[in-house]
Write a structure and sequence with these properties.
The protein is an alpha/beta fold and 338 residues long. 34% of the residues lie in helices and 15% in strands. The strands form 3 sheets. It has a 6-stranded mixed β-sheet. Strands 5-6-7 form a 3-stranded parallel β-sheet, with helices on both faces. The protein has a two-stranded antiparallel ribbon with strand order 1-2. The radius of gyration is 20 Å and the shape is globular. Mean pLDDT is 92; it is low at 1-12. Bound molecules: 4'-deoxy-4'-aminopyridoxal-5'-phosphate. Residues 59, 61, 89, 91, 196-202, 241-243, 288, 290, 316-317 line the site of 4'-deoxy-4'-aminopyridoxal-5'-phosphate. Its EC number is 2.5.1.-. Keywords: Pyridoxal phosphate, Transferase.
Length: 338
């Protein structure tokens, strides 16, 4: 950060109190917490939502993109100007593409066919190269997104694969950022923490910090969509972007820590999308589907929590990137969710 007086084109002495970030990367993290009032009516617990959509790339994934790139550069795994190749449902790709722009790394993103048009356009605007893969292909299928990303990386000299599902810098970003922020913002009074599970980095890293800070007192919950096996149910179609897995029941990413998560709740799609709509219409919070999933889980947790509980739920991204999906009547009707 620098003061506006230090900028070359400003008249000295004008607006001396205004602070300016010297890089977009400095805008990552320190996202606000906002309290719900309408959806929590009648409940004794308070529910706070952490607005990760306020990161510059629009999601919590800016945090892990920054930490994974920083760690790889420090370890010598990512040379200056080398290409970054990753399989991602969108947000991690946007974070990587944003930081790739700032640091001069070309970025190749392998994505699924059902990525929203908005996310695809954002990736293209940051200059990422886009490659489509079959998100439902099994891990040993060459069409599997991670297999496609591995192949592109092998063919690109010096390329680096962040491998967000196996990279310790993913949960570490939340252990060092999201967790301490929630602790500070709640004055250490948080009693329950809820995050939807994609890689599990958010729930595991943040949960670990909060458990350490409270001597294990904070309860940590994962939120899971229908069709994802993380909740113990059968594999099926997943209609919530960026979360869940359709892989077999015994699959857990390295970035998920069983020792931290007390329970995983599965919420059906109708409740997820109803919660997304209510967040927008009653709380004026335009959030993505995985935020609806986390908030719906937090409301369930609130029903069983002791009076006075302070529940924090992560909203991984905002709703603007889903205007053609979660907020479009045609998409909802086609998905049987209207
Ligand atoms: N919601 C969205 C929209 C995401 O993109 C992700 C990350 N894939 C998550 C939730 C889950 O976060 P995590 O990977 O840390 O479990």
């Amino acid at each position: 950060m620098t003061t506006i007086d230090a900028l070359p084109h400003q008249t000295p002495g004008v607006l001396p109190e205004v602070e300016v970030c010297d890089s977009v990367a400095a805008l990552i993290s320190n996202t606000p917490l906002v309290e719900l009032h309408s959806l929590t009516r009648g409940l004794d617990a308070r529910v706070l939502v952490k607005l990760e959509g306020r990161n510059p790339g629009g999601s919590s994934k800016d945090r892990i993109a920054l930490n994974m790139i920083r760690t790889a550069e420090a370890a010598g795994a990512l040379a200056p100007g080398a290409t970054i190749v990753e399989a991602t449902s969108g947000n991690t790709g946007i974070g990587l593409a944003l930081i790739g722009r700032l640091t001069g790394h070309p970025v190749v993103i392998v994505h699924s066919s059902d990525i929203s048009a908005e996310k695809r356009a954002v990736l293209a605007a940051y200059g990422a190269r886009l490659v489509e893969a079959d998100w439902e292909a099994a891990p040993d299928d060459p069409a599997n997104p991670r297999a496609v990303a591995d192949r592109i990386a092998a063919e690109t000299p010096g390329a680096w694969r962040p491998a967000q599902f196996a990279n310790a810098a993913n949960p570490d970003a939340h252990y060092r950022g999201t967790g301490p922020e929630i602790w500070r913002q709640t004055g250490g009074r948080v009693t329950h923490f809820v995050a939807s599970i994609g890689t599990g980095g958010t729930v595991s890293g943040t949960g670990r910090f909060l458990k350490e800070a409270t001597g294990g007192a904070v309860r940590v919950f994962g939120a899971n969509p229908t069709g994802s096996t993380y909740g113990g149910g059968p594999a099926g179609r997943i209609l919530v972007d960026g979360v869940g897995t359709a892989w077999p029941r015994d699959y857990w990413p390295d970035t998920f820590d069983h020792a931290i998560v007390d329970a995983v709740h599965t919420i059906d799609d109708a409740e997820v999308y109803r919660t997304v709509r209510r967040l927008a219409s009653e709380e004026a919070l335009l959030l993505g589907p995985s935020s609806g999933l986390a908030v719906a889980t937090a409301l369930r947790v609130a029903q069983d929590a002791p009076p006075g509980s302070l529940i924090v739920a992560v909203a991984p991204d905002g709703g603007i990137n889903y205007l053609t999906k979660a907020f479009a009547p045609e998409w909802l009707a086609a998905a049987g969710l209207d």
